[in-house]
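User: Hi! Is it possible to get a structure for several chains at once, not just one? Here's what I have:
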Amino acid sequence: MSSPSAAKSNPGNFFEDFRLGQQIRHATPRTVTVGDVAVYQGLFGPRFAVQSSDAFARAIGYAQAPLDDLLVFHVVFGKTVPDISLNAVANLGYADCRFLKPVYPGATLSALSDIIGLRENANRKTGIVYVRSRGFDQVGDCVLDYVRWVMVRKRDENAPAPPAQVPDLPKAVEPARLGGACPKIDAAAHDTVLSGSPHRFGDYQVGEKIDHADGVTVEEAEHMMATRLYQNTARVHFNQFTESKGRFGRRLVYGGHAISLARALSFNGLANAFHVTAINGGRHVAPLFAGCTVFAWSEVLEAADLPGRNDVGALRLRTIATKDRPCADFPLKLALGPAEGGTRGDGDDYDPAVILDLDYWVLMPR
Amino acid sequence: MSSPSAAKSNPGNFFEDFRLGQQIRHATPRTVTVGDVAVYQGLFGPRFAVQSSDAFARAIGYAQAPLDDLLVFHVVFGKTVPDISLNAVANLGYADCRFLKPVYPGATLSALSDIIGLRENANRKTGIVYVRSRGFDQVGDCVLDYVRWVMVRKRDENAPAPPAQVPDLPKAVEPARLGGACPKIDAAAHDTVLSGSPHRFGDYQVGEKIDHADGVTVEEAEHMMATRLYQNTARVHFNQFTESKGRFGRRLVYGGHAISLARALSFNGLANAFHVTAINGGRHVAPLFAGCTVFAWSEVLEAADLPGRNDVGALRLRTIATKDRPCADFPLKLALGPAEGGTRGDGDDYDPAVILDLDYWVLMPR
Amino acid sequence: MSSPSAAKSNPGNFFEDFRLGQQIRHATPRTVTVGDVAVYQGLFGPRFAVQSSDAFARAIGYAQAPLDDLLVFHVVFGKTVPDISLNAVANLGYADCRFLKPVYPGATLSALSDIIGLRENANRKTGIVYVRSRGFDQVGDCVLDYVRWVMVRKRDENAPAPPAQVPDLPKAVEPARLGGACPKIDAAAHDTVLSGSPHRFGDYQVGEKIDHADGVTVEEAEHMMATRLYQNTARVHFNQFTESKGRFGRRLVYGGHAISLARALSFNGLANAFHVTAINGGRHVAPLFAGCTVFAWSEVLEAADLPGRNDVGALRLRTIATKDRPCADFPLKLALGPAEGGTRGDGDDYDPAVILDLDYWVLMPR
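Assistant: Yes, the chains can be modeled jointly so their relative placement is included. Here is the combined structure:
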């Protein structure tokens, strides 16, 4: 139907609507306030002292308590949804995500995306859109820069597809490119009693695994409140009437919700990982639904110095979140069968309880 | 019982307690903050740029992002409940509701009501109370003025009733009386990419119908949080123990919740309708319950110039909200039967899915 | 297991880890803002004018609307959980709790605890820890001081126990020690129309009972949001996966949630009890679960002058909260059987509907 009403409401873009090199300015700019901080606190319960306390943040060198990095991420991400992923089948991955400037309550965030890759799928029904999105504050500084790729439906299977173009993306952000959103801190002023753990950067070893121990059950009201807080309009999160007839029979929880839950759980074992400075990659391995209880564990993949900085070090973490499955034994992959000589967790397929596999860099005081 | 305790807790007013011309000052004054804005954002997810972004609001002529108009309405309305409608059977209608001054975070709102009409019902068990309520800010300016009428129980069926007096209420607010809460705006500075739609005032035609497309499921925790945020104490919204034995067997969602949901959904098709300037009338056609999914569509009833203003125009909208019923075919009334020569939607009775029929004026930039 | 990961995540303290005289500084400092006020408002719906309105608060002598006293309590309490009660079986009681300084939005709260008593239980599996906790603001002033005692598991039944030492605690806070968090107020400026009730301090009699009339149903999303808002990490509130196999088969609502619900309900009958100045004692008589509807009633136990102050008086209240049981007949204790010559409510055991028995002091304007 091409009625006037159809023309006025937003049908979203389909795969054939995107062009390589296209730039999209997104609605709606959003002033993020201490109100948003409190709602986020109520929904996830983070305990990192830098984001929780103005006094603590000032003592180490911030102007005041900055916004939780993931709140910034979700708000910027949310803006891209009506233009990029309203007709998405799946959010496939993230890469090269960097936090570039501290964001404080009162900042107004807006977002801009560039289409950097397109590849039609063999079935001609869908294609993959690679998009680099950037978030800006009210003075025009870029605060966040990341790439994601999504599988988007075609409006018309017969529509011609552009030549496939897949961007070359880094497996991980280089240490030299980390730390833009972290001012020079006074590591000695970082009170490890107040921050909740004596373990600083130097106390973690590569290969170390940490069970974050706690579990948190997700409610429908919670994930919808969070997702609306970000002005993320993806329909699968909100509409039980339609989803009851869909693939899962119920509303799907926004993938970013699992990231925020895992980050909040990770305080228990990583209390001084005060800043997520980059996300190297992430995969929503399985869908999350209300009623499930989320657990998480982390492995230290790398420990890196930041060139020119002796205040903080960077840990590259892999955090795995599960549903309805405690993580004391670090569930990840399924075992190969005995015929393959397998032992626990050495196969290619994820344990069915795993919902998130996230690779990211955090900063810790030295 | 006339025990001291009964005397201390508020039994609410019954029909025979009201007098024509009576004026009631309501408790509790309420400072509305960016915190309330964030909770409202989480509960409804509005995306109108003016209320979302201080930077956007300033660019067009506001001092900063004003409060959502409906948040102001609900807070003022909430104050009137303990005095006006604690013993109400039904909230019957609204008229002549005008927003008179922009309200910014930090304002303290209070409310005052005048009883402007009374009419006992034939059954002598209830009567209708017509009340004009006004909301004031901390400097004493009136920010909101509206009439509603409610059916209120009598304490004693035999109590004498005052002579019936029904106020003369306008079918719609005159365009000359609109716009008090909207400063002169710079329509050219209203960036329609950031606001989410290229369609300005001149792009809408009278008679045009818009399906707002999306649906949102309501949770008990959500509507109770919203209604408590407004300090609205109507008992039917909160008490499952009592309501489980009542008419519906469950808690009833505050009617204003459906209005806020419909307004937020209406962004999809009316993104530049940045300000609700008046409500001409409204009817809660059927009750809403948690678990239902709300959809909405709108029809443009009128387009009006505002005398002396060339920055904005007013659209008179009729927005219909439904439960568990998408609105692509604009559900409203039931068809007459074939014996009456009927076609779809030409009868007097509402489609059973309709929950709200709201007639209001919005402003759009020219 | 003494793996590195176990060493990094917090197992909490067990009974044998505490020492008499031990002082514990708690993580995480927390800046409490108008955002937290709004979330708390949405979750509990308090209507006390002093905390609701900056204008009202200023008119009587506050700098602005102070934080709800119980929000301050819960935030300070929450900080103590990871160190004191992560391995608690039960929170047994409170005593000598005093609010010492008004706390305004923007304050940063931190907490410190002293172990003032220890007593192993006869079964040698658990012991009781008596702890005095204090909350401080960002300038180091003590804003809250209270004692609680909790039953904590032993890690090892065979671990030696310290000699039993039980502190001497007052049955109630002396009137001379009340009022520290209440500035001298202008009682004449306390507008009893705006505050919602004409009843001032002098209008209440000792022995008077007040049914707070309303009931409010608790949802899982609500109590978890509240408890996360306080950064309270007690596991039983959040983890349905684990609790489904536990004693109750479901998540337990934080005891403080019932206190906040009862306080909000108590507005209906105690609207001018604008400040909780002390808590003499409290008992969580029975667990509360989502889905239950909470009711409350209060009895005036004492009315006291505050030495040197003629602006306010103190009422000592006993507030009883119930689940799924209205309070018009003031349920409290079970009757003795007829063989004992009993009448209603004269036994020692609580009515099974009672969940909270709280003894506290409030201030009211004269």
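Chain B touches chain A through 52 residues (CB under 8 Å). Residues 280 and 315 of chain B are 12 Å apart (CA to CA).

User: Great, thank you!
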